[in-house]
Write a structure and sequence with these properties.
2 domains; Arc Repressor Mutant, subunit A; 10 helices; Tetracycline Repressor, domain 2; disordered C terminus; homodimer; mainly alpha; about 0% strand; elongated; DNA-binding
DNA sequence: TCATTTGGTAAACGAACGTTTACCAAAAGT
DNA sequence: ACTTTTGGTAAACGTTCGTTTACCAAATGA
């Protein structure tokens, strides 16, 4: 069965996320499935191959996700007076989806932790960690905020500074998730942060802008 | 010489911070100093003992630091009209000092990275990482902000939400430091963040409060 | 039906691991 | 001056590592 190959990948990911790549032995992975380590080499050519397959899988998952999120296209025919609300609401929903993805989703959550543990081992891992979880998302938000400032949805401000202020709490709360006992409180904090950010930075929360 | 013992500790810390504890061999550590691994056992009883000594050292460094930062006591006899400025300026300086400590300081920087890599291995490491770098600092800022709100230096707001908004960018920038090529830009971003935070949350940046 | 492929076991491989031992030169103590 | 301690080397210990090999039963395919 090719089902075993999948089980190996997930078991390895779970172990890599907790212990780090080097600290996990091939026997450990095989032991998780109740098979011998010899059987493992029928599915992967070596230990590194498992790791590489995990990374490749993440690229695949990410491609599917961005295909899904890109151009929903439905709300662009709104009247100008409600555009900012829709736009901000989109950001809010996107942010919550990001949070859920990196914390609740089994694969993404374990992958994030694995990447956290491997980020200093090589420039490649550092770049991957950075683009997935740090500078990548910040740059993404910066683009969005620059656009929104230009359209008058947000007050004038350095979009890089805005992106930092917006994304950093999300990043920190993701990092707190794994060992938080009250996970609902974290979600509440995140929602509070988003609401606060919109209230302080959106045009139209104090005076409403006419069409 | 007891100087060798210190060199072993620092070399081990440097390696643990890059590779993680399990991925570093005793030979690796000895090799960094140009001695054999046998010699290493004249200074530490085993590999774990080196790790524990590093952690103990951090506690020691931290104790010295908090002794140094606690009760500078010099500015508490200010007139009420300048109190908020002093208070906010203290926070600004404290924040920058924290940032420099966890990024530039050789021991603290490596210790932070090591802790980042070990945080999922045991509850003890998770707690240490959390108290040093995540929930600990947030709770600390929360206390400060609650006090400042009560004294009217800050606008009314949930202090937990304030602490998250204030500390998270610091946390993210610390994490970006290691592999940033333009470190000055990060410092600029941090200073921008602090200035922005004070401007948006301090009472008196729009209307000055009389005595 | 019979050859082949698949997915598994058990054992062995050399290398590397953390640790211990036997030994030694130089420094320190008395 | 002689003993002890200190800080080092080199080699060996038993264990575990990642990987390979020989073998096998069941599924697959012609």
């Amino acid at each position: 069965m090719t089902d075993t190959k999948e089980k190996i990948l997930m078991a390895a990911l779970r172990l890599f996320a907790r212990e780090g790549y080097e600290a996990v032995s091939v026997s450990d992975i095989a032991g998780e499935l109740g098979i011998t380590k010899g059987a493992l080499y029928k599915h992967y050519k070596n230990k590194r191959d498992i790791f590489d397959s995990i990374v490749a899988r993440m690229f695949q998952v990410d491609a599917e996700r961005s295909r899904q999120y890109e151009v929903p296209e439905e709300q662009f025919d709104q009247s100008p007076e409600t555009y900012e609300d829709v736009s901000l609401e989109n950001i809010r929903r996107f942010t919550l989806a990001q949070f859920v993805f990196w914390t609740v989703d089994d694969f993404a959550s374990h992958f994030r932790k694995m990447l956290t543990l491997e980020q200093y081992r090589s420039a490649e891992m550092a770049e991957l960690y950075n683009s997935c979880l740090v500078a990548g998302p910040v740059a993404y938000m910066e683009d969005i905020f620059r656009e929104m400032s230009k359209k008058g949805v947000l007050r004038e401000a350095d979009p890089k500074q805005l992106a930092l202020a917006y994304y950093a709490p999300l990043y920190l709360l993701i990092g707190m998730w794994d060992q938080a006992d009250d996970k609902a409180a974290l979600t509440t904090l995140l929602e509070g942060h988003i609401a606060r950010f919109i209230q302080m930075n959106a045009v139209g929360t104090e005076e409403r802008k006419g069409p």
